[in-house]
Amino acid sequence: MIRTFLHKLLQLVPVLLIVSFLTLALLELVPGDPSISILGADAPAAEYERVREQLGLDQPLLERYGNWLSDAVSGDLGDSAVRPGVSVWSLIASRLPVTLQITVMALGLALLVSIPVGVAAAARVGSRFDRGVGTVTSGLISIPQFVAGLLIVQLFVFNPDVPRIGTAVLLWFVALTLLVNWCRRFVSDREGGAGSVFVGCLVLGLGLLAFFWWPSFPRQGFSRLTGDDGLAENLRTTFLPALTVAMSEIAVFTRLLRSDMISTLQEDYILAANAQGKPLWRILFRDALRPSSFSLMTVAGVSLGRLIGGTVIVETIFNLPGMGRLIIQEGVIVNDFPIVQGGVLVIALFYVVLNALVDISYAALDPRIRRGVV
Amino acid sequence: MPLLTRGFAVASSEKRPNTWLGALLFVLGALSVWVGSDLLEREGGLLRIGLVSMGLGAIYVGLDRTMWRIRGHRVAVDFWLSVAWLAVIGLAAVFADWLPFAESRDASKSFSAPVASRPDLFSSHPLGTDTFGLDLLGGVVYGARLSLQISFGAVIIGLVLGGMLGMLAGYFRGVTDEVLGVLTNSMLAIPPLIFLIALMVAIEPSVLNLSIALAFLGIPTYVRLARANTLVFRQKEFVVAAKSTGARHGRVLIREILPNVLLPLVSYAFIVVAVLIVAEGSLSFLGLSIPRPEPTWGNMISAGANDLRRTPHLVFVPGIVMFITVFALNRVGDHARQKWDPRESRV
């Protein structure tokens, strides 16, 4: 176990080296360098030379990379080239939490929606509900993120009654179905135990909550968790960006869980549990969910790594101070090389470490892999 | 519907529907779209949108039932509609210069056109105009031309380069495989949008440059796909037979493995094109792809986003066209993959 762990960690090193070198090489292609951003466009040529020398830009590419690397290994990502004295670490430290919060919320939201929907669709394969889920998910996958973001703004910010009433009606419909199912037990002997009454009432309550206490969401801006306005304001400003990011993930997760769940439900032990007369929700959520969730966990882990580097669009639409805009607007556009290098390194680090963790957690989740059976 | 059914409850267990009911639904749907899009011009937007989407839904169901009745079995209407959409948009993009669109590119020629008019299917601006009076239908079609050119170009470059590298990795294994594996992993670890943005700041946004830049996104995917597919075939009898008769590596790769690997790779092309259209759109949305006056879907949406509240159609006309195109590509791609990818069809 520890050996595989160390082996995985060792594999990350070349990837990170190549990523950081590629970043530097790519920046080399970008016309202009920090000296122009510092001095403006029409300083004398000698001035540019002096600034370049100060920043160490007159050295050859490989030497610069070596210098940066030896600092980076000891945890020092250098100072911003354009704003002297501002360390790259402090910039990243102020921006990373925003991006992390949005991606984690998006992932949580996606799992929260996709697990019940995926399980329910798999339990009734081929039903009207299942086919509806299929249509909706293939639609969600095809919405480009920036269109999704603008659509969400149009609905939630400019026409808040549409999502408010829509959500409430949908929740009431689900609650009604559950409660009617429960009432059927008086006619036939199966379907719906006390659990579905409980869940039904819960969903009914949620629907009422959505109808009467629908929060208003701001068009843009961000309120820090540690700021004066606290958690509620923070959630209010991050919900729409997280929802935008979550939309396509919801679709991917639902499809994945549904198809894995379908094959799990054909196993004999499920048949046995069914024959014992265990309640349906218990079979689905206690017996079948865990063995069906391996690929979901993999994809969720990989998505988290991918999303951390992919929030530029929502940060632009909702005007959030995250990593994406740090790298683009304060890095690439003004040629602030150290910011770009540091930012990309941090994002790549998250990506590869999360991927490695996913690989390792396989073993923890599935005893067959741990013992080398599969 | 029994719970926990074994396998899919296939639709053929349902009853064959009536033709005329389906046809009626179709007609009612068309009527509702017409009323929603044209007659109720003075009414609120939400009512019209509701009517049009209900009508489209009815048209779809009606078409499904009618075809089912006529053919005697379920017809994948969504698949054929996707094919039709791609054909229409492809042909329109090719023949855009000969089609009678109102001016959609040069703002100095559209002074007489109404500004920011809403979509009205039976006027000279069927999808409305933007804030310069430029025609949105023309813009969408010219945008399709650029989008399709760029992403198909990128896919072809990615397919050739990535496919080649992947086949080499899968065939020779060993050091080649390890090195290419590390390289692909590194390329995948760089956040794609940030990579593209950095690249686009460095180079001139032209169709060729954008194709090359976007091809970098496709290459790692194709390396992995080609490698996985080559692994399936490299131990097969016909490859071993070719090798034992003394064929060189090059000949085995090109004559034996390539024909088997090519089709699955091409079947993924639709889905990769869909991804790249979105990537190009994102770049364009951020202002880093082909700039105005050339309309692209992304720069049309980005321009419209400035005044989303008052003129939402500037965003959602190109947005919906983009959505349908991506949806159609995904649908056709899924179909092609199930048919042609040995790893999918074996299951």
Folded structure, characterized:
The complex is a heterodimer of chains A (374) and B (347). Chain A has 374 residues and is mostly helical. Chain A has 17 helices and no strands. In chain A, helix 6 (128-141) crosses helix 10, helix 14 crosses helix 15 and helix 15 runs antiparallel to helix 16 (337-365). The two termini of chain A are 15 Å apart. The mean pLDDT of chain A is 83. In chain B, helix 4 runs antiparallel to helix 5 and helix 4 runs antiparallel to helix 9 (249-285). Chain B contains twelve helices and no strands. With 347 residues, chain B is an all-alpha fold. Chains A and B meet through helix 1, helix 6, helix 7, helix 11 and helix 14 of A and helix 5, helix 6, helix 9 and helix 11 of B.
Which short descriptors sum up this protein?
heterodimer, A: 374 residues, mainly alpha, elongated, B: mainly alpha, MetI-like fold, 2 domains, 12 helices, 70% helix
Could you describe the largest sheet of chain A, including whether it forms a barrel? none
Uncertain spans of chain B = 1-13
Largest sheet of chain B: none
Largest chain-chain contact? A-B, 60 and 51 residues
Which term fits the overall shape of chain B?
flat
Rounded radius of gyration of chain B (Å): 24 Å
The residue fraction in helices of chain A comes out at over 70%
Residue stretches of chain A low in confidence (pLDDT < 50, at least 5 long) are none
Write the layout of secondary structure elements.
The complex is a heterodimer of chains A (374) and B (347).
Chain A: H1 2-29, H2 34-39, H3 45-55, H4 61-73, H5 88-123, H6 128-141, H7 145-158, H8 161-183, H9 194-212, H10 230-264, H11 268-275, H12 280-292, H13 294-308, H14 312-318, H15 323-332, H16 337-365, H17 367-370
Chain B: H1 19-39, H2 45-71, H3 77-94, H4 136-172, H5 174-189, H6 192-202, H7 207-234, H8 237-244, H9 249-285, H10 297-304, H11 313-340, H12 342-345
